[in-house]
Amino acid sequence: MSALAPAARRLRALARAELALLGRNRGAVTTALLMPLALPFTVRPAVDQIDLKAEGLTVGTVTLTAAVGFSLLFAVYTSLVSAYVARREELVLKRLRTGELGDVEILTGTALPAVGLGLAQSLLLAAACTALLDAGAPKAPYLTVLGLLLGLVLSAALAALTASFTRTAESAQVTALPLVLVSMMGSGMAIPTEILPDRLASVCELLPLSPAIRLVRAGWTGELSAYEVLGALATALAWTVVAVFAVGRWFRWEPRR
């Protein structure tokens, strides 16, 4: 424990500094806070046209998982892509590497404020959907917690990977857009995968954030078998391992010229 204390102090200091920088970026704060709050309600008209009861779903559970998914995408993923690229272009990451912080600590400390924001926002939105949309109590809350934690970790790892191939802070929103669009349409956020044709649904279940969304929704519906839970876990862990390996291999610590 004594050996971990210095690392914990360094992470806290870096996270506080990053939180202060995040607070000064009004565009990033607006995107992170408002998009997850507004977007779930934009899918309501489409949801109303779907026979949700036939799939064991309700408007509350669909809107809730959409809200959590949008928090992962905007509060964590897109904001972190911009943060990593901006810190690299400002030579912050390069200077941090000359001190006591290791590479993992730098990436983790930079990610902590966004991950904390995504966690708090997801919990708040889940509570609001439960109270206002009659989503009911979760039947398997441990699945929701597991899905949310996996989603937060994977979103941060994917953000670092995307930042590896992003040249400037201005282009961060563009390079993050493909994953955002694919996840919104295919991972069960805007359209529940339960209503898709079986073959298409099987493909969509392999997308990076699909396992997290499935587990979050299954926590409320309780309609996921042990085999399906293990499959979702395996897919999420596989994506996490691939993302972490790719970040270790290709992440750039100095400006791309």
H-E string: HHHHHHHHHHH
Tell me about the biggest sheet? none
Helix content: over 70%
**Mean pLDDT over the residues:** 84
**What is the number of helices?**
11
Structural class: mainly alpha
The best one-word shape is elongated
Low-confidence residue ranges: none
Q: Give the strand content.
A: under 5%
Estimated radius of gyration: 18 Å
The total strand number stands at 0
Terminal-residue CA separation: 42 Å
Written overview of the protein:
This protein is mostly helical. Helices cover 75% and strands 0% of the residues. The chain is built from 11 helices and no strands. It is elongated. It starts with a helix and ends in a 7-residue tail after the last helix. The mean pLDDT is 84.
Question: Which characteristics define this entry?
Answer:
257 residues; 11 helices; mainly alpha
What's the SSE blueprint?
Layout: H1 4-24, H2 26-42, H3 44-48, H4 59-89, H5 92-97, H6 103-132, H7 141-164, H8 172-186, H9 198-204, H10 210-221, H11 226-250
Short note summarizing the structure:
The chain is mainly α. Helices cover 75% and strands 0% of the residues.
